[in-house]
Design goal:
664 residues, alpha+beta, Pnp Oxidase, Chain A, Thrombin, subunit H, 5 domains, 34 strands
Length: 664
């Protein structure tokens, strides 16, 4: 073959390679030629242990094998190897339907055609689709440049319907696990009537797994560089590759071109990222691009990028914590926090201002215990970011997954008088974490939300400007709530026989709530707070809280008059101090119809629902604020609820990045 490089290999080396093939249950290719017409064919055979002069191989069973052996004569065999293949001109001693015995020569030839090897595959199902036509079969062999499939014709869909001039869509799977899908061109095919062999060429050198974003995750070149290790689901062989760069959302690797296995679109169900035998992180990943790099005439490598599709949340936090330290040695993610230093920060910065502290001081021991538990490994529902130097905490922000697919950002405090970058540093950390985590299945992050007081300039500047820049309430919305405390009072029995009724919320009530909210706001509150009709019976987050020893209960009630919905009450019951303003342990009230709905009736409902709380004062969030104003309901303050759709994160990062660079 033109361009091949061949050198002689001694019999001893050949025998060692043959025995290694036997040990790994690998195969050789025996080349035959038709006795009359000379047409070539290759059959697969498995070598038995070899001691020296002769080699005995058993045939790999294939349809029509006996007939082939009657009409073909032996020529030579090839011992395939991922690095170098051997062409062996052995002499046939015996050939039967079961086996072939060969006398080995003193030397053989090493073949280096510098082509990409096609790897043998087993138990991989293939589906081929083209313009409404569907075929299924099995993957025979595979390389990133081309692969061979064996398809079966269905009685109502003959092979004549397959247009070789058009591309086809191919899906690989094993059991229920999809391993690849992509468009391919048909390079060649045989003329089988019931089964047909096709050689296909993938058309894409890159895919777009997720929505394109302006601000990508920061990639780092670590020393020492990690290794990526996985069992290739197509070939069953272990692959070990060096990581070029790594981020919280993906990584790139290099592999030798002739032995490469990574193809854009391939899904690797189980990949280990190993760092110097110290850290081993497991993930599910997908190849998103493949580029060939030419180093010199003798060496060509392939660089492939992989996106992390999913990773256990605790392992992903470990990865993020490592990369956070690479970015800034004073930035810490879910680390062990000196709680005394943290409490000192809350008081020094005025985060715990006198009025707020007056509400929590009676339960300060419970607050301390809750925070000790929150900051010791409850990563499935909570995480924290700190900026600290010499053990002292100067900046802090936390997140809690309080709804099914929504994380609440809260408790942002920073001593900028001592370290001017402390407050922005923790916000940068939150941004990096969101960017790295939002596409992972395990993180359950469709939305990020934050309550803030409009009179506080810093959060209003950050969150308000982001909402203005996005300028799309499906991407980012702000809604205001009146915040008050209802003092428990005894209530005489309430006559439910009149026009008013308080019942468990039904799906049709949430549909009406959605209609009202779309009309008055058009934001994300209904989606982010799990108030969609289909979310009514979903409460997986409560189970997650229970697993880590925390309480999370939710009760929905609908108030109606003459059958017409007036308000929906969301009774959230959680551990005290989960949020210092008890915004996660309060009654969310959404007034749908304020007409003929007096404040006395509202407070009567609060009296009924206050039984779910132990404290004397029950926190209330009332929406819209106009109801409180129009009905002379006194409230302590206004809280704005900012919600960001994770499909619109670029505007968030663009604005925070501009502020950070302005302050540097």
């Amino acid at each position: 073959m033109p361009g091949d490089k061949r050198r002689e290999i001694a019999k001893k080396t050949l025998i060692n390679r043959l025995n290694h093939h036997n040990f790994t249950d690998s195969e050789i290719l025996v080349n035959l030629a038709h006795t009359k017409y000379g047409s070539p064919i290759s059959l697969r055979a498995k070598p038995l242990p070899c001691l020296g002069e002769t080699l005995e191989c058993t045939w790999v069973k294939a349809p029509g094998l006996e007939q082939v052996l009657k009409n073909y004569r032996y020529v030579n065999f090839i011992l395939p190897d991922p690095h170098q293949s051997f062409l062996v001109e052995a002499v046939s001693v015996s050939l039967t339907d079961e086996k072939i015995i060969l006398r080995l020569p003193e030397t053989c030839l090493e073949i280096d055609s510098r082509q990409v090897i096609r790897h043998s595959c087993h138990d991989i199902s293939v589906r081929l689709l083209q313009n409404g036509v569907y075929f299924q079969g099995a993957l025979v062999d595979f390389s990133p440049l081309s692969f061979r499939v064996a398809l079966t014709s269905l009685s109502d869909q003959p092979f004549q319907w397959l247009n070789v001039e058009s591309s086809v869509h191919i899906v690989f799977s094993k059991g229920q696990e999809m391993l690849f899908s992509g468009d391919c061109a048909i390079m060649k095919q045989d003329c089988g009537q019931k089964t047909r062999s096709l050689v296909l060429r993938p058309l894409n050198t890159q895919i777009r797994r997720f929505k394109q974003k302006e601000f990508r995750s920061s990639r780092h070149k670590l020393i020492p560089s990690p290794n990526v290790v996985f069992r290739d689901p197509l070939t069953g062989k272990q692959v070990n590759l060096k990581v070029v760069d790594l981020s919280g959302s993906g990584f790139s690797v290099e592999e030798k071109e002739e032995n490469s296995v990574l193809l854009p679109g391939r899904v690797l169900p189980e990949v280990n990222i190993d760092l110097a035998a110290i850290i081993s992180l497991r993930c599910k990943a997908q190849v998103v691009y493949r580029t060939v790099t030419q180093e010199n005439e003798e060496k060509r490598t392939v660089k492939c990028g992989l996106a992390i599709l999913d990773m256990d949340i605790q392992e992903h936090v470990r990865l993020q914590a490592l990369l956070n330290q690479v970015s800034d040695q004073d930035s810490y993610f879910c680390n062990r926090v000196d709680m005394d230093s943290l409490w000192e920060l809350f008081f020094q910065t005025g985060f715990l201002y006198p009025e707020k502290y007056s509400f929590i001081q009676a339960n300060k021991e419970n607050f301390k215990k809750t925070y000790e538990r929150l900051y010791t490994g409850n990563l499935h529902v909570a995480r924290h970011f700190v900026y600290q130097k010499n053990g002292m905490v100067y900046g802090h922000v936390a997140m809690v997954r309080f709804f099914e697919n929504t994380w609440l950002v809260h408790h942002h405090a920073a001593n900028n008088a001592v370290h001017i970058k402390a407050g922005l540093s923790v916000l940068e950390q939150v941004g990096r974490s969101i960017n790295d985590s939002k596409n992972l299945t395990s993180t359950r992050m469709n939305f990020v939300a934050c309550y803030y007081r409009p009179e506080n300039r810093f959060p209003k500047r950050i969150f308000g400007r982001i909402a203005e820049q996005i300028n799309d309430r499906n991407g980012c919305s702000i809604d205001s709530f009146a915040y008050l405390h209802y003092r428990k009072s005894s209530l005489e029995s309430w006559d439910l026989s009149g026009p008013w009724s308080l019942t468990k919320t039904q799906a049709e009530d949430l549909a009406e709530l959605d209609n009202f909210y779309r009309h008055v706001s058009g934001g994300l509150l209904v989606n982010a707070l799990d108030l969609e009709p289909e979310m009514l019976e979903v409460d997986e987050i409560a189970q997650e809280f229970e697993k880590v020893g925390f309480k999370k209960e939710k009760y929905l009630f609908s108030l109606k008059k003459d059958g017409n919905l007036k308000a929906v009450f969301v009774v959230n019951v959680s551990d005290i101090a989960l949020n210092m303003s008890d915004l996660t342990n309060c009654i969310h009230t959404i007034v749908v119809d304020p007409e003929d709905f007096p404040r006395g009736t509202l407070f009567m409902i609060y009296s009924l629902l206050s039984k779910y709380y132990d404290s004397e004062y029950v926190p209330i969030l009332l929406y819209p604020v106009s109801y409180a104003d129009n009905h002379q309901i006194e409230y302590d303050k206004i809280y704005s609820l900012w919600i960001l759709n994770m499909q619109y994160t670029d505007s968030y990062f663009r604005y925070v990045d501009r502020i950070v660079h302005h302050c540097k």
